Amino acid sequence: MTETYDVILIGGGPAGYQAAIRAGQLGLKVACVDDNLSFGGTCLRVGCIPSKALLESSERLVLAREHLAEHGVEVASVALNLEKMMAQKVKVVSGLAQGIEYLFRKNKVVGVKGRARFVGPDRIVVAATEGERELTAKHLVIATGSEIINLPGVTVDEARIVSSSGALSLERVPGRLVIIGAGIIGLELGSVWRRLGAEVTILEYLDRITPGVDAEVAKTHQKILEKDGFKFRLGVKVVGARHAGEGVAVQFQPRDGGAEETIEADILLSAVGRRPFTEGLGLDAAGVQLDERGRIAVDERFRTNVPGVYAIGDVIRGARLGHKASEEGVVLMEQLAGIGASVDYETIPSIIYTAPEVAWVGRTEEELKAHSVAYRAGKFPFNANARARAQTATDGFAKVLADAKTDRVLGVHVIGPNAGTIIHEAVAFMAFGGAAEDMARVTHAHPTLSEVLKEAALAVEGRPLGI
Ligand code: NAI
Q1: pTM score, two decimals?
Q2: Residue 288: which residues within 8 A CB-CB, separation 6 or more?
Q3: Of 68, 16, 3, 42, which is closest to residue 392 (Cα–Cα)?
Q4: Among candidate residues 291, 297, 289, 303, the one with its CA nearest the CA of residue 332
Q5: Sequence-ordered list of residues with C-beta below 8 angstroms from that of 189, at least 6 positions apart, any chain
Q6: Model pLDDT for residues 280-301, shown as the tens digit of each residue
Q7: How far is it, in rounded angstroms, from Cα 11 to Cα 137?
Q8: Active-site residue 323, yes or no?
Q9: What is the 8-class DSSP label of residue 226?
Q10: Which atom of ligand 1 is nearest to 274's Cα?
Q11: Is the C-beta atom of 52 inside 6 A of ligand 1?
């Protein structure tokens, strides 16, 4: 017998599960299908959440080992218990997974565990453990996310050559960790293992780290990471990796040609990006079309070319971020329920959870220059911020970019302590079309880290108070 719903979310990551909860709140009859044992998707199981758990725990180790003494707190001995640290990570993840189950029950979302595939434009079959179930809905939403990109010549075995998933569960600290890719995953997971004692070398194709991040911020970030012991080889292309002895031999060459080199690693982490995941989904049976980059093609209301079939999150265009995906899911459900809603793509914040954190919203200086936008920049360093001094966390700065004519804030970039929290003030300013002068005139409590934004906004007018 075919089960009938108003909406079915295919995929239970941040896009699918948040959409399902919102659909339930709106009184829609909703099911969410996922083939994993728990809902939450890549973000909760093997992405954002476990990596943040390990980043938090490992930062505490560094704090105890290296920084408490300068605050007059003397700790007799500090030791790593990796097993316990991993258990803490598992506890965080499983607690949040149970939270989703609770929210599904509360909002009458039917959770279906099993692999879904289209068998027509308006129906799917789910291969569940209890047998095949056929489901149909007025609105079918593809929220199947993304998968790791594999580099030719580098075969991930999740033992010695790992993806981000494997790097979240290593059983011991590698002596030498080599990472391919200086993107966000490379820097975050590199930070975890560096703090736990690994020697970390990152091989990056471009001549800079973190493509897309404001170049001045990326340069400062690289310097701070180098001070913390990271080694970078920029402008090199990894061409292969093979097991050698107990470890891995990684072959790379200068990007623009030249002699091949080899570097030995105990563990190799491949972190060269993600791509949309649609394998086995039966898109042909539904007639859903992809765009030129293998993503599901959608219009501004998330509609595919097939009436009644939509797509959201990592599987479509745009930044691959959990919060972007869940905003799209919530907005789509509201649109389906007849509520006017849209995603403001100009004000989606991005955060790199290293120490210090890097956070930004809006345009970089490079983008403004490329589009010939006249702008004024104001900058303020954390070492002139009282609270940062008390925290002995003075690396980094905040930068506000404002339109030269209108003073409207076009981009804000922060590298420093709590940057990921500070940035949300800038997000709110930009969402309301605020000017740098507004930001400068709003009272910021003293002494707080947030004062760097006020000062950077004042610096746009050339009159910071604190430097
Ligand atoms: P990425 O696309 O951010 O970075 C991959 C890097 O690998 C690039 O710098 C690229 O130039 C380099 N690369 C590619 N081929 C190479 C080769 N053969 N040799 C050397 N270098 C090579 O991808 P990443 O870090 O894997 O992250 C995947 C996705 O997950 C991204 O979209 C990212 O935004 C997202 N993510 C977001 C997080 C956050 O918001 N905090 C955390 C982790 C991931």
Answers
A1: 0.97
A2: 118, 142, 296, 304, 305, 306, 309, 311
A3: 68
A4: 303
A5: 51, 164, 167, 168, 179, 269, 271
A6: 999 999 999 999 999 999 999 9
A7: 15
A8: no
A9: H
A10: 28
A11: no
